[in-house]
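QA checklist item 7 of 12: single-chain prediction sanity check.
[x] sequence parsed
[x] length recorded as 439
[x] structure emitted
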Amino acid sequence: MFFRWLKNYMPRGIYARAALILVLPVIMLQLLVSVVFIQRHFDGVTELMTSAVNIELRFLIDTVNNAADLEAARDALSRIDAPLEILTVLPADDVVDDDIVPWVDLTGNSVIATMRRGVANIMQVSLADRRRVVVWIDTAQGPLKLDFSRRRVSASNPHQLLVIMVVMGALMTAVAYFFLRNQLRPIKRMAGAAADYGKGRITQFTPTGAVEVRAAGMAFLDMRNRLERQTQSRTLMLSGVSHDLRTPLTRLRLGLSMLDEDEVAPLVRDVDDMQRLLDGFLDFARSDAGDNLEEVVPAEIVTAVLDDAKRIGQAVTLGGIEGARAPLPLRPLAIRRALDNLVNNALRYGNNAEVGVSVTDRAIRFWVEDDGPGIPADMRDDAISPFVRLDPARNQNKGSGVGLGLSIVSDVARTHGGVLRLGESQKLGGLMAEIVLGR
């Protein structure tokens, strides 16, 4: 449960995750070193150095306490001040109210604690100046102020070590990131080639990188080649069977033309139905063979479909063109065939149809809607399946169909890495068929 909650806040990109994998251990290691090594080591060094200074401070305090009066104390301090490198003031009139330790001082608390343990009667300690230590001590002659260098009680390089750790950690992280990016680049190229193949594009791809990445790339190429061979075999088989059956059908039609028309009329209709079935098979075989990708304007494809429909008297109007004026990589003949099938299907069950196109930053959307009875929501998946007729009675007097129209459109959409969606037309009340292609 915890990890599921954490997953929502993790980066999704492979580069971001790789950076997290690199940076997080470095930060944890630096924190560990800072706590275990720096803090403990420098605290120990600080205690030793401060304990040595405490000996001198006790000597000064004893000197002041043993003096007969204030002048004698000052005279005694003046004789020993220089060798100890400690500035003294007696009596002091600037005693602070509390100890002063900057929050960035790593060893300040250790200095004060060690001094208080080793020297009695310490009033206050100030570490406000990073280079000096000021101590006020209560003596027999009044408050004694001692001022000496900070170097005498604590090591001088904890901050330098921290800076070195941070700089070296950042440098090594950057170096590791560049090396890791070279390992991730082949994975991104393979993902791009797979995405292009899903959109019907064969992208040149050569496996590179580590042994495991090369193995994955070779497996992808083998899979793509097998799919291509399977698609070509399917197309050739359907095309060959459909083509070979045309010859006996032609002979049957010629033979029937020599008989009495009234007697052979049902047989002629059967031959015509078989001819339509063969034409449907050929369209289905050509749908995924398709043409090559070309830079075409989607609006021009829709305009051509409208012109052909008006030329033969079909009631088809323009539903809209949105952002479709720039050339895009498409298979124009396949898209045209798919839209023709959708228009013919719409007019088979309705009286009017509309066709349009919309282009956004993420998708290309062609749509055809009609005023027919539509397709129930629970039957739309079956409608896309090959050789399925949802309502045989509806086909009567509407022209017999093969059951491949929507399957052909779905295959065209898949070759572009898209999908065919069936829904309800809000404008005409019938079926809305959308070809949604990813960009």
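[x] summary fact logged: DSSP finds twelve helices and eleven strands in the chain.
[ ] second reviewer sign-off
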